[in-house]
């Protein structure tokens, strides 16, 4: 009879340790998220499930074109692509990104742009100073400028303004569901 008690104690201890490890991973290291809406198409689709890692933001700076998750409101997280970093000016002219008045290629938009007529723009013209809430000349320290990959249908920094880095939850790593669209996010 005592061996059965030991077996139950071992099972309970194993379950408690497993739950504790899972919670630590979920709270501090990675989290699952579901994409809601079309704002990151074609990179991410509505209802894609992905893993966001939360650690690297404490050790490395956010880079241009990272796909991040941030607290947009007290109840909603958004997923967008970092376009502008602290100290930079951002502008779009003739469907081209300019950072500090220098053209920057956006290869992840090639697929979406190939379906446009020649005279159509995928991203409407704007400048950081004139068209983005806050009317900043440059992005201040502690903030980033984000856009959705689906520029015609995205609520991003053009409407929300600059995103405080302290509101960044983490960087999207890969989609895991649906299984046939598993991919590393670049």
UniProtKB/TrEMBL annotation:
Membrane topology qualifier: Single-pass type II membrane protein
Record Gene3D superfamilies: Umud Fragment, subunit A
Transmembrane segments: 12-35
Protein family (similarity comment): Belongs to the peptidase S26 family.
NCBIfam families listed in its UniProt record: sigpep_I_bact (TIGR02227)
One Pfam family matching this protein: Peptidase_S26
Name of the molecule in the record: Signal peptidase I
Top EC class of this enzyme: hydrolase
Listed InterPro entries: LexA/Signal_pep-like_sf, Pept_S26A_signal_pept_1, Pept_S26A_signal_pept_1_CS, Pept_S26A_signal_pept_1_Lys-AS, Peptidase_S26
Catalytic reactions of this protein: Cleavage of hydrophobic, N-terminal signal or leader sequences from secreted and periplasmic proteins
Taxonomic path: Bacteria, Bacillati, Bacillota, Bacilli, Bacillales
Any one cellular-component term (Gene Ontology): plasma membrane
PANTHER family, per database record: CHLOROPLAST PROCESSING PEPTIDASE, SIGNAL PEPTIDASE I
GO biological process: signal peptide processing
Domain of life: Bacteria
Domain Peptidase S26, chain residue ranges per copy: 8-177
First-listed, main subcellular location of the protein, grouped into a coarse class: membrane
SUPFAM superfamilies cross-referenced by the UniProt entry: LexA/Signal peptidase (SSF51306)
Gene Ontology terms, MF aspect: serine-type endopeptidase activity; signal peptidase activity
């Amino acid at each position: 009879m005592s061996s059965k008690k030991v077996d139950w104690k071992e099972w309970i201890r194993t379950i408690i340790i497993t739950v504790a490890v899972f919670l630590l991973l979920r709270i501090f290291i990675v989290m699952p998220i579901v994409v809601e809406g079309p704002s990151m198409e074609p990179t991410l689709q509505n209802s894609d499930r992905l893993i966001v890692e939360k650690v690297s933001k404490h050790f490395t700076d956010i880079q241009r074109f990272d796909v991040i998750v941030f607290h947009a409101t007290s109840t909603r997280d958004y997923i967008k692509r970092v376009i502008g970093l602290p100290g930079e000016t951002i502008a779009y002219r003739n469907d081209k990104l300019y950072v500090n008045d220098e053209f920057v290629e956006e290869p992840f938009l090639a697929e979406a742009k190939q379906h446009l007529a020649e005279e159509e723009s995928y991203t409407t013209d704007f400048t950081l100073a004139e068209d983005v809430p806050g009317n900043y000349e440059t992005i201040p320290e502690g903030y980033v400028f984000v856009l959705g990959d689906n520029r015609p249908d995205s609520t991003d920094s053009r409407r929300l303004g600059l995103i405080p880095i302290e509101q960044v939850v983490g960087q999207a790593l890969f989609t895991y569901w649906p299984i046939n669209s598993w991919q590393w996010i670049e």
